[in-house]
Design a protein that fits this description.
With 831 residues, the protein is α+β, with helices and mostly antiparallel strands. The protein has 31 helices and 13 strands. The strands form 3 sheets. Strands 5, 6, 7, 8, 9, 10 and 11 form a 7-stranded mixed sheet that branches.
Length: 831
């Protein structure tokens, strides 16, 4: 109910500000300041009345996505007004506040790139964005002084987390483009080859009256360009308006203006592809038209259907085979890519190069599966005929099989297109959904639970624990609560390293204390336990609180190999004073590092709420210990287990019973509890809301590509069935003359189309499942997340239904037209 002019009261916790503002003499006078900071927060909590001058509903990225409420104030007036609300028995504090210039204590200053700054972040290549931002920040820091400031790149940091997503999305779009180009080549080739085969007689007459081979080539190229150029122009116009509409919608959702104009590079690529694809697709039809025998072309009394073909090859033929040359060059390029480019990408850490290598491998996998499907085509057709069409008569099935054999070469194009289309659709739907699922899994693994309370190291655990335990007792959907402490590095002001006893291998670690139920509270499914001692009867987090566990730690499985550790080995935990905070010993020398011996309690490859891995890319992993071990390792920074600062309070939810309303209610209660102690609530759902825009865009893109792929396949099937039926006009006439009814003929061609489409669907199902499963397995390997493979059954059944309907439509209409012709007309038809 807040609006402009409303009066609100804000609770401000001043300790984090006053510890920098108060002078040393004030601190000496207020000898109870430390006691207040340790035991009671009341003197440091100031209630400040404010007047609302504006309300905003969307932060536009200015705050963390977990921040659900924020108050913006002018620094100097607000800081000066605090003096009137400080307790009267703290005169030194008031005096220091009045004498302080607030801008001298500003801890963070935000700079924006020069306008138009959004354009610099709209590039697809993260490396280019990083280069420009780092260049700008380097000049800025050089002017302010390298020693006085520490630069942080908030936007760049968020973009870096999306780098893998961006690369995978680029990979998917590249696969989409390659697949669509391949399908378009096949479609145009199918249309042209049908035109050539149905106009064989006309082309023969043209050759008889003097048209040269060059004239035939020009004629077919002109025919190709007559539909390519108008389609190119219409596509650019449609792309202009469709792009403007989509980018406007995305810009409204994202809160940023995106230039809707088509890029010159996009227009250039569209022009090249729009003209090159038809020309490439016309090569084989032109070769077929030129290779046709003139006598056979003008022979109108014989059918053009050839069920048997005989090929004669001369042993002294010196002309090289283009297929062998193409295959050899392809294999040589594949060997060069794997032997040189792949190691190059690994050594340079060039993910873009690696993903494009993966793209080539995926395309090669699709080509290999397509070749396999062509060899299995007849077997699958027989399987479909004898399992789904057994109720038809033997004569119908025999005639259908003879037609499939006679039309095998032309039907092969349709088989490839339908199988590739279905494989392409399954791949697109699975991979697009995989991107969102991966993000959701990453958020769950990082957060640990659906709801958690994140506190600063100044929060007091005693008061919080009582209130949180009461919340757990009152909420039925909250099953249990666990916690994780701040790291020793942040509490004791040291750098923590894990090293071998001989100090030959040293790696950075973040040492945390966890509750004895930590791994039972966090979300299941993420924990990968490589090795542990299961003879004690306790789980690994409980074993930390046993006598052996007090001398042990839970570490990542990476160090089992890199440091040659086992459950009976010993390693050293080094606490090294930071360079700026290093104290001196009695001799005036810098204080040296301290070491403690620990043993591995368990090796983990992954877990929710903590960072573990078995791969060397995951550096600075977590090292988990018990409370008592944490106190001992803190070297006096923490006096007792009760004073260990807790960083995260994790809540185990009854996922089978909890609802969004329950989570909203619990989240509100946690915010009220945490507001008094400077804690904030992390809600996994809030982060997932940011992906809704991407999900909607991906669903639209996948739906559009699915529609395009199905439309291309339908046109190919229609042209093939039209050519199949047209060139068998004489055969249809002979059957009709022998007394075969028209319905019988319609059934034969309809079942032929059904068998063709159904076998192609099964082959496409196999191809798409293999490719999609491979991509899912690779994504799980990259992210080290238990990403599941979910087959899109709804899309699959929809595509199968649409394919069967298109099969009936593509065969029934041309067959009906032929059946309605007279027998004499069918026998006189010329193809």
């Amino acid at each position: 109910g807040l609006r402009v002019g409303s009066r609100i009261t804000v609770s401000v916790y001043l300790y984090r500000y006053l510890q920098d503002v108060l002078r040393e003499d004030t601190l000496r006078e207020l000898d109870e300041v430390s006691a207040y900071a340790q035991s009671s927060r009341t003197p440091w909590t100031v209630l400040v009345p404010l007047t609302v001058t504006g309300v905003f509903n969307y932060s536009r990225g200015k705050f963390d996505s977990e921040t659900t409420s924020a108050v913006l104030v002018e620094l100097e007036p607000f800081f000066g007004g605090l003096t009137g609300w400080v307790r009267e028995d703290m005169p030194g504090v008031k005096r220091d506040l009045l004498q302080t210039r607030p801008y001298d204590y500003v801890s963070r200053v935000t700079f924006n790139l020069p306008p138009p700054r959004l354009d610099r972040y709209m590039r697809n290549d993260y490396a280019l964005i990083q280069r420009e931002v780092l260049s700008f920040m380097s000049r800025l820091v050089a002017r302010m002084g390298y020693e006085d400031v520490q630069a942080r790149f908030q936007v760049l940091y968020e973009l870096r987390k999306l780098r893998i997503f961006n690369l995978f999305l680029g990979l998917i779009i590249s696969v989409v483009m390659v697949s669509l180009v391949g399908l378009l080549v096949l479609l145009i080739y199918s249309l042209l080859i049908v035109s050539v085969e149905t106009r064989t007689f006309d082309l023969g007459i043209l050759r008889m009256v003097g048209m040269t081979r060059a004239g035939i080539v020009r004629l077919l190229l002109a025919q190709t360009l007559t539909f390519a150029i108008p389609a190119w122009a219409a596509g650019l116009v449609a792309a202009r308006f469709l792009t403007a509409f989509l980018l406007e919608q995305i810009g409204q959702i994202a809160g940023a203006r995106i230039d809707p104009r088509l890029l010159p590079a996009s227009v250039a690529w569209a022009t090249v592809m729009g003209l090159a694809v038809p020309c490439v697709a016309a090569i084989l039809p032109i070769r077929k038209a030129l290779a046709a025998n003139l006598k056979d072309a003008i022979d109108a009394n014989r059918s053009k259907v050839t069920a048997i073909q005989v090929t004669v090859e001369r042993s002294n033929q010196e002309r090289p085979s283009p297929f062998i040359i193409t295959g050899g060059l392809t294999m040589a390029g594949f060997g060069f890519m794997v032997y040189y480019l792949f190691p190059k990408g690994l050594l340079e850490g060039n993910l873009t190069l690696l993903l494009y290598i993966f793209l080539s491998l995926l395309v090669g996998m699709l080509l290999g599966l397509s070749t396999l499907s062509l060899n299995l085509e007849r077997s699958i057709e027989h399987l479909v005929a004898y399992t789904l069409l057994w109720w038809n008569g033997a004569s119908v099935r025999a005639m259908m099989h003879k037609n499939l054999v006679a039309h095998r070469l032309r039907n092969r194009k349709t088989t490839i297109m339908y199988s590739l289309s279905l494989a392409f659709i399954i791949f697109i739907v699975v991979t697009f959904a995989l991107q969102i699922v991966t993000f959701q899994f990453q958020e769950k693994q990082e957060k640990g639970t659906l709801l958690r309370l994140r506190c600063s190291r100044f929060a007091q655990p005693r008061r919080l624990l009582d209130q949180l335990e009461q919340l757990v007792a009152n909420e039925k959907v909250v099953l249990d609560m666990g916690w994780m402490s701040h790291s020793i590095a942040s509490v004791a002001g040291v750098e923590t390293y894990m090293t071998t006893v001989g100090k030959t291998v040293t790696v950075g670690q973040y040492v945390h204390a966890v509750s004895p139920n930590f791994f039972r509270v966090v979300l299941p499914g993420f924990m990968v336990l490589e090795e542990h001692d299961d003879e004690s009867g306790y789980f690994i987090d409980e074993q930390l609180y046993t006598p052996r566990g007090s001398q042990s730690a839970i570490i990542g499985s990476l160090y089992k190999e890199s440091m040659s550790l086992s459950l009976n080995s010993t390693f050293l935990l080094q606490r090294k004073p930071r360079q700026t905070d290093r104290e001196v010993d009695p001799n005036g020398l810098p204080a040296s590092s301290t070491y403690s011996k620990l043993r591995p309690l368990a090796f983990l490859r992954g877990a929710a709420g903590a960072k573990f891995s078995g791969y060397p890319e995951a550096s600075d992993q977590d090292l988990l210990v018990s409370l008592t071990t944490f106190v001992r390792l803190s070297d006096g920074a923490v006096a007792s287990a009760a004073e260990v600062p807790i960083s995260l309070y994790l809540f185990q939810m009854d996922e089978g019973a909890v609802t969004d309303a329950d989570l909203d209610r619990i989240s509100l209660r946690l915010r009220r509890i945490g507001a008094r102690s400077g804690c904030s609530v992390d809600d996994v759902r809030r982060r997932n809301e940011a992906f809704k825009v991407a999900l909607e865009a991906m669903n639209f893109f996948s739906g559009a590509t699915t529609t395009v792929a199905m439309a291309i396949s339908f046109f190919s099937l229609t042209s093939s069935m039209y050519a199949n039926i047209s060139e068998q006009s004489k055969e249809i006439g002979m059957l009709r003359a022998l007394g075969v009814r028209g319905n019988w003929v319609l059934r034969v061609y309809t079942l032929e189309a059904f068998t063709l489409v159904m076998s192609s669907t099964l082959l496409g199902l196999m191809m798409g499942t293999v490719v999609a499963f491979t991509v899912t397995a690779q994504r799980a390997l990259f992210t080290q997340l238990p990403v599941p493979f979910v087959f899109p059954w709804s899309i699959f059944f929809w595509v199968v239904g649409a394919s069967l309907v298109s099969a009936v439509a593509a065969s029934f209409l041309p067959a009906t037209r032929k059946v309605r012709q007279s027998i004499a007309g069918l026998m006189r038809s010329v193809t």
